[in-house]
């Protein structure tokens, strides 16, 4: 090939790559409409209605309408566009977003985590990368954060506050979206009683939650078209209303009208801002769903479609209101041209359902992350799709949310009161994000203090303005997110507190290695063929529960493995980095430790045979130990060794479900044949140990799980006794048992213990 042809071919390849990349971004941007922007898209249904629900009256000069539109435009532009799209979206944690992503970044860079079982070995994870370079001022600030345990405690409480308010959104979004959409039917059926509208809304809500266990993957392909059509509908109607009713409505985009509005309306105008903030409900979802889509795709969708369509919709409704003051409480549906009313009504109802579904799915994801970080009682997590990772369903949470949604719908029966509650929840979550972002800018991005203060003051003051307006409506529905958040925060904090206290008890009462070694290789028992897996929360030492076996049982398995399943402060842990293997005590004792690590967004349910994976890992560790014995002799007995699972490659698990059992048998056979035959095996003693482990596996694997009960010490305060003996005990009794990687019940042995904390 001559140079000219080579140059042309390279140019064509580069052009094709660029086109493919652009098409991928556009495709993801289109798909994000149904997942990310469903909640944000339905805001026009109730923004003006809620804003003018108080004593705020309209005058002939339309200053109030122009002022509200100006507030909507600049709030939407500054908060949604500048803060979230241009700034917050850049603070991703290995591609993941949301409150926990920011918290994870802070914990890794400033050692602010209060998770137990954290090790320096975790910092070697590929997703754990941190930048150690910092100037003297940043180092001083960092040390002050790390040395203050109260700061870590209050930081967690602050994060839980934002999380609980986000969960409250999962209750309020379906109620206000569905009820606002359905209430449009009263324009055509004026004699229809309000009870029927509420009943229809409840039926839709119950139906929505009842279908959650099927998952959304079967109907998710229609979400994006529904939201896209909805955006086109409201923007087209907005343009129509602008040109028909008030072409000069563009003047309201001037910030001067905000000042005029506050000056002319006074306190009532300030309180009405609690309705304006509803225009940006759902912007937090953009950041939270960052892991499902690329950052650039979400930015493209918002900048070129979502932002202009919603601004046109709000401008068009304001133009209609400027000529129809009497229709303020029905302005959205009144502004729809008669010929297209029913099609728009149907699309609005579907859009409300899609928006509600997005928030419900986000709530499941939040609860799952809380469980991973020991901040929520264990619940059953069901995978609803084998093809799409991260689609989960939590039965207990689903039915609780459904009952709360129905109760709020029947109890309030008014979208205005729901809007007041919704506004307080949304603004609180945004303010939490702003504060966490300020810390990220200092600790992670290493920005100058003056720029961080400017960011915090500018956006924080805007959000505090809206929070203050929403707080004034506490007696008119705003109490709902406060009560829900207090309940969820109480549950989360008590569960986290009790879990930490139990871990401290484990650490203080673990069996000393001196005692274990003094028992001899037999551990004072008869060692029978087989492998015993003892689950505990310890990453070093021998758990206290094992002391019960040594004291009370006459026999134990030939190979003993202490298994610890823990979460680390990264969103995902790669499969080849998931397990850590090491030997406990002298070689002839036959004791090992396996640490199974998960990220806070990983689902702790394995789709492979954990027993075979573990045995393969132990053998690989033993072989590695034999090959590098001279190096390992200088290491401590608790040094952890990484391994990669080469015995089970991905191809063995990509076949059909009908061949699954056969594949598992073949995989086990490969270990039996391949491992001893490998050329890099060490001396005969090492070969014998590998064979002994394989024979022990064939004899059977038993899973031993400590079932502990926490009780407060007699010297504890009344508050601690109530938290541990009543609340934590109730949660422990009614929550799901700890996951032990799909252990068959016939192989499970539970040992009860009482922890005095």
TrEMBL record:
Residues 529-755 form the K+ potassium transporter C-terminal domain. Its main location: membrane. GO terms for cellular component: plasma membrane. The chain crosses the membrane at residues 65-86, 154-176, 196-212, 219-243, 269-288, 300-320, 340-367, 388-410, 422-445, 452-471, 477-495, 516-535. GO terms for molecular function: potassium ion transmembrane transporter activity. The keyword Membrane applies. Keywords: Ion transport, Membrane, Potassium, Potassium transport, Transmembrane, Transmembrane helix, Transport. It comes from the Eukaryota. It is a multi-pass membrane protein. It holds the Pfam family K_trans_C. Residues 28-517 form the K+ potassium transporter integral membrane domain. It is found in: Cell membrane; Membrane. Belongs to the HAK/KUP transporter (TC 2.A.72.3) family. Potassium transporter. This is Potassium transporter. The lineage of its organism: Eukaryota, Viridiplantae, Streptophyta, Embryophyta, Tracheophyta.
